C-alpha cells in the first residue's frame, strides 16, 4: 500500500470506531482486562519513598488497536494526573473499582499503534479495591505480589493473562533501599542520595506476574551451569527465618535444572526469588523472581515450595491460562511437581500421594464438590484444585503410561511457550500424544462435583483392572506439601 493509501485508510476504519469493552471477557472476573487493544510492552519509570509509602510513576504502554477505538480502558487504582496517546493529551475518567477510561484526541483505527503515557501517584497501601489491597506495607517499604490482581496498585495495565507483554521497570529509591522486580538487573546507579534500579523482563509476562518490592535487601547473584543468572533477595529483617529462607531459595538453580529434565528448557532469561519481611503466608510465582512469604520457612528449609513456584515458570508463566477457570493448568501441575520431587527425595511416590489424598476424603467431604477444571472464582485457590488436581494428573499418567505422560509434560510447554492455553487444548494434546480418548477421565476427575468411584490406583502388572486403594500410610512429604496450600491466601 502506498503512503497516500495508508492515510486514506485510517479515517475509513476510524469511522467504524467505538469504545473498547471494559473487560476482556473472563467469566470469573468480567471487569478484569479490557477489550479493543493489545499491549506489547510496559515501560514503568517509578519513584518510591519507603518512609511515606508514596509512589509516583510514568507508565508508557506500547499497544495496537484490535478494533477502531473512540475510547479504551486500562485497569488501575492510583491517582492519574495526565494521559497522552500518541503524544497528544487524552481525556480520562475513572469508573467502577479499577477502570481508567481514556478518550484519545482522535480515534484509533484498527491495527494502529498507540503509545499511551500515564502519569500517576498515590499511597498504594491505603488504596482498597473490592475491600482489599494487594500492596503490602513492610517496616522498610512495600511489596506488590498477589493473584489474580496485583498490578492496579502500581501500574496501569490491561490486567488479564491473555494480554502478555515485555517490561522495563526502573525504580528510584533512597540510597540503602533496594528495588526488586522481574527479569535481569540491567543496571543500578546512585546519585544525590537516590539509587535507580533498572530491571528488564524480555519475555512475555502476564500482568499479575509482574512484581515490585522496595526494602532493605541482601541481594545474592549466581549463575547456573547453563549460564542462567540467578538473582535472589532477602530482607535484612527475616529474623529466625533467615537461614531456612536462604537454605531453600538458594537452591533455585539446582531445582530449575531438575525441573528442566521434566518440562524442557527453562523459558526465561533470569531466575530467582525474594523474601521480604511481610507477615503473610503465601508465595506467588512472579515471573523469574518468585515472591515467598518468610512464614513458608518457619518450619525450616522448604524446598517443596521452591519446587512448586518454579514449576509455575513453565505451568502458568511461560504458558499462561486463557481464562481463570483454567487454573488447574497452573496449580495442578505445580502441585504434581512437588509429588515428583517427593519421589526424587524418596519421601513417597506420586502414586502413594494420590492414594493418600483419595483415601483422606470420604465421599461426603465438601472437598469433592470443588471441580478442579472449573472451580468458580470463590474456590479458585481451594485446596481441591491443588490436591484433587494433582490426583487427576496421576490418573492421567496411569491411563496413558509413563512414556506418553512424560512426553506430554515437555510437549505442552513447548507448544504454548510465551502464550496461553486452555484445559480443552491440553486434553487434545494428551489424546494426540497417547492415541487414547480421554474425555471420560477429564470429566470424572476435573469436571464432576463428586468423589470418583474408582481410586487412582496404578494398574498392577498382569492385573486386568486396578486394585482398590488399601488404607494408606501418610507419605513423609505430605505435611510439607499440604503446608504450601496457604500459597494464595489473601
Ligand atoms: Zn501455585
Automatic annotation (TrEMBL):
Entry keyword Protease: yes
Decide whether keyword Translocase is in the record: no
Which segment of the chain is annotated as a signal peptide? 1-17
The record's section on InterPro entries has:
Aminopeptidase_N-like_N, Aminopeptidase_N-like_N_sf, Peptidase_M1, Peptidase_M1_aminopeptidases, Peptidase_M1_dom, Peptidase_M4/M1_CTD_sf
Name the Enzyme Commission number(s) assigned to this protein.
3.4.11.2
Q: Which CDD domains match?
A: M1_APN_like (cd09603)
Q: Which reaction does it catalyse?
A: Release of an N-terminal amino acid, Xaa-|-Yaa- from a peptide, amide or arylamide. Xaa is preferably Ala, but may be most amino acids including Pro (slow action). When a terminal hydrophobic residue is followed by a prolyl residue, the two may be released as an intact Xaa-Pro dipeptide
Query: Could you tell me which residue ranges the Peptidase M1 membrane alanine aminopeptidase domain spans?
Result: 302-445
Source domain of life: Bacteria
Assigned keywords, A-Z: Aminopeptidase, Hydrolase, Metal-binding, Metalloprotease, Protease, Signal, Zinc
Q: Which residues form the Aminopeptidase N-like N-terminal domain?
A: 40-209
Bias kind Low complexity: ranges: 459-475
Chain positions covered by the region annotation Disordered:
457-490
Family under the similarity heading: Belongs to the peptidase M1 family.
- For this entry, the protein name equals Aminopeptidase N
Amino acid at each position: 500500500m502506498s503512503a497516500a493509501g495508508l492515510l486514506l485508510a485510517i479515517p475509513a476504519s476510524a469511522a467504524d470506531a467505538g469504545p473498547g469493552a471494559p473487560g476482556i471477557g473472563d467469566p470469573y472476573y468480567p471487569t478484569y482486562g479490557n477489550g479493543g487493544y493489545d499491549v506489547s510492552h510496559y515501560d514503568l519509570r517509578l519513584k518510591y519513598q519507603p518512609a511515606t509509602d508514596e509512589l509516583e510513576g510514568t507508565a508508557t504502554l506500547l499497544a495496537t488497536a484490535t478494533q477502531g477505538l473512540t475510547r479504551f480502558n486500562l485497569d488501575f487504582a492510583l491517582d492519574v494526573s495526565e494521559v497522552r496517546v500518541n503524544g497528544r493529551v487524552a481525556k480520562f475518567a475513572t469508573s467502577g473499582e479499577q477502570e481508567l477510561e481514556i478518550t484519545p484526541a482522535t480515534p484509533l483505527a484498527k491495527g494502529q499503534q498507540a503509545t499511551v503515557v500515564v502519569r500517576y501517584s498515590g499511597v498504594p497501601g491505603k488504596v482498597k479495591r473490592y475491600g482489599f489491597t494487594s500492596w503490602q506495607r513492610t517496616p522498610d517499604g512495600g511489596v506488590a505480589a498477589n493473584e489474580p490482581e496485583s498490578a492496579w496498585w502500581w501500574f496501569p495495565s490491561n490486567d488479564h493473562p491473555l494480554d502478555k507483554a515485555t517490561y522495563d521497570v526502573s525504580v528510584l529509591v533512597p540510597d540503602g533501599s533496594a528495588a526488586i522486580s522481574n527479569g535481569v538487573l540491567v543496571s543500578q546507579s546512585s546519585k544525590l542520595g537516590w539509587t535507580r534500579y533498572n530491571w528488564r523482563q524480555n519475555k512475555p509476562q502476564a500482568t499479575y506476574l509482574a512484581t515490585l518490592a522496595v526494602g532493605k535487601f541482601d541481594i545474592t547473584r549466581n549463575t547456573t551451569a547453563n549460564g542462567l543468572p540467578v538473582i535472589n533477595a532477602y530482607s535484612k529483617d527475616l529474623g529466625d527465618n533467615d537461614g531456612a529462607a536462604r537454605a531453600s531459595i538458594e537452591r533455585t538453580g539446582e531445582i530449575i535444572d531438575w525441573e528442566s529434565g521434566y518440562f524442557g528448557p527453562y523459558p526465561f532469561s533470569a531466575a530467582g526469588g525474594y523474601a521480604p519481611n511481610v507477615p503473610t503466608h503465601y508465595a506467588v510465582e512472579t515471573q523469574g523472581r518468585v515472591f515467598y512469604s518468610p512464614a513458608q520457612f518457619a518450619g525450616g528449609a522448604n524446598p517443596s515450595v521452591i519446587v512448586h513456584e518454579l514449576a509455575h515458570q513453565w505451568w502458568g508463566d511461560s504458558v499462561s491460562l486463557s481464562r481463570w477457570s483454567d487454573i488447574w493448568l497452573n496449580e495442578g501441575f505445580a502441585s504434581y511437581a512437588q509429588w515428583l520431587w517427593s519421589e526424587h527425595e524418596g519421601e513417597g511416590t506420586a502414586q502413594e500421594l494420590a492414594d493418600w489424598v483419595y483415601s483422606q476424603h470420604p465421599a461426603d467431604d465438601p472437598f469433592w464438590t470443588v471441580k478442579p477444571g472449573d472451580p468458580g472464582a470463590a474456590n479458585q485457590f481451594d485446596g481441591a484444585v491443588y490436591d484433587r488436581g494433582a490426583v487427576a494428573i496421576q490418573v492421567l499418567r496411569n491411563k496413558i503410561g509413563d512414556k506418553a505422560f512424560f512426553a506430554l509434560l515437555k510437549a505442552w510447554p513447548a507448544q504454548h511457550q510465551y502464550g496461553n492455553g486452555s484445559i480443552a487444548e491440553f486434553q487434545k494434546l494428551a489424546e494426540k500424544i497417547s492415541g487414547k480418548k480421554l474425555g471420560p477421565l477429564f470429566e470424572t476427575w476435573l469436571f464432576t462435583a463428586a468423589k470418583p468411584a474408582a481410586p487412582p490406583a496404578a494398574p498392577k502388572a498382569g492385573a486386568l483392572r486396578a486394585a482398590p486403594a488399601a488404607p494408606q500410610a501418610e507419605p513423609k512429604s505430605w505435611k510439607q506439601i499440604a503446608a504450601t496450600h496457604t500459597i494464595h491466601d489473601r
